[in-house]
Amino acid sequence: MLTVVAGAAMAVIMAVRGEIAMAVALPVIIIGYGLTVSLSAGRSDVAAQLSGYEEDERRRMVNMRAGAMAGNVLMVALVCGTFYELVRGELGGPFTWLSAVGGITYAASSAAYIRAGHKSPPCQGE
Considering the entire predicted model, what is its pTM? Predict the structure, then answer.
């Protein structure tokens, strides 16, 4: 359902901008992706993971680790972008603000989880 809404929103935005080819292509791609993942979820672990269907602890752990990896990669890219802005004398641009939001969110969520007493799951080797 979310893919249909996102596809329709993108179609409207592209149509308003006068980009008719993109107004047709983007929803087809997004809805096609959603259908492919949803219909393949029963036969493929990867498709099930991408569809958000987490039926067991292993899939939840994979999702958590994949999210952590994505967050780490994005933060490295943002910090590199912030240094690029700094070198060019453009500090205060989008990379700076997104790095700040990411850092503050990480610090605040870490503090919240520590105070709530949540324990991290054990590593596979433990």
Answer: 0.64
